[in-house]
Amino acid sequence: MSHHILHLLSHNLRVRLKLDQLHIADTEKGKEKAVPLADIAVIICAARDAEFTSSALRRMAELNVLLIICNEKFEPCALTLPYYRATNTELLRRQIEWTPEWKLAMWRQIITAKIRNQAATLGHLKRAHTLLTGIADLCHAHQTHPDAAESRAAKNYWHRLLPRLSETETRRIPGTRQGVNGMLDYGYAIVRTAVLRSLAAHGFIAAIGIAHAPKAGSFALADDLMEPLRPWLDRELYKHLEKGNEIGKMEDWIPVAAELLTKEVPMDKTKVRFLPAVDLYIQSFATASLARAQFPLRIPML
Fold first, then answer.
1. What's the rounded Cα separation, in Å, for the pair 261 and 188?
2. In angstroms, what CA-CA distances link 63 with 38, 42, 190, 240, 279?
3. pLDDT tens-digit profile of 77-93?
4. pLDDT tens by residue, 240-287
5. What Å distances lie between residue 20 and 34, 35, 55, 57, CA to CA?
6. Burial, 106: exposed, middle or buried (Cβ in 10 Å; 0-12, 13-18, 19+)?
7. Distance CA 301, CA 123 (A)
8. Given this model, what pLDDT does residue 120 score?
9. Shared fold status for 4-79 and 89-291
10. CA–CA separation, 149 and 157 (whole Å)
11. Does domain 89-291 have CATH number 1.20.120.920?
12. Of the CATH numbers 3.90.550.10, 3.100.10.20, 3.90.78.10, 3.40.50.300, which one belongs to the domain with range 4-79?
């Protein structure tokens, strides 16, 4: 799978398709650039009055290229996904037949990995993290429910992390669209997009999850599977702000957040880029689903 991210930030752009290349014309400056569509994984568009031809949108869907539309504040407000088509009908049947016991076992793995990644993030910042490690151990050993472990870990994690990110924000509040919380929301939207892309490629129905409650227009399975990946984004935001970048300045944060998808991460004693690592993770989830077994998931770990 391709892994490049294309940013469209200039105003008055026209995007059309020619010979499987995106031709991006700046109608104000009279310049045009061509990019092979097969090399692109995600397009992030924060350009005012950008135009996409229907042929470009159709081919993007066929190649599983996701388009994220941002508003004037650089906040993601829409994304495109290929219309669902089953690539593996047996996988589709398995997803519909998931048992409560199997879903809980997978959720336990996911939450244990999330808490361990949170602990690694705090460890990287020289913050106390032994409590989180202990919570992860209890969850792994079936001595606490994953939901209870996640809630307890979150309180400790944000209590120790947020003061390193902001002097004024004391709680993690999704949807505020401001400050560090707004920057986190944007970054998580990028990570969620990577998970959605891989789920679509493997033939999953993203609306059917294992823990998050399905709601109209939601992608419950993506919300489930992205949980252990969130701390990766948290660490990138810390490094971004540590360099003296302004809190809430989204135009500087957008390319940094998206760059996470191209960074190399450790997987099975080697290193792969984050986006292919997500694909390996989703593939392991598909394998466990097909086998109806509690196979270990290949989750990118910090």
1. 12
2. 7, 11, 18, 32, 15
3. 777 776 665 556 778 88
4. 999 999 998 888 898 899 889 888 998 888 899 898 899 899 999 999
5. 10, 9, 10, 12
6. buried
7. 13
8. 95
9. no
10. 12
11. yes
12. 3.100.10.20
Compute CA 267 distance to the chain's CA centroid, rounded to the nearest angstrom.
17
In angstroms, rounded to a whole number, what is the distance separating the alpha carbons of residues 267 and 274? 10
Angstrom distance (rounded) from CA 11 to CA 95: 42
Tens digits of residue pLDDT in 101-154 = 999 999 999 999 999 999 999 998 888 789 999 999 999 999 999 999 999 999
Give the residue extent of every domain in the chain.
4-79, 89-291
pLDDT of residue 45: 85
Q: How far apart are CA 138 and CA 132, in angstroms?
A: 10
Enter the tokens of residue 183: 């920057």
Task: Please tell me the distance from the alpha carbon of residue 110 to that of residue 103, in angstroms, as a whole number.
Answer: 10
Which distant-in-sequence residues (6+ apart) come within 8 Å of 233 by Cβ? 184, 187, 188, 190, 191, 257, 260
β-bridge mates for residue 7, sequence order: 44
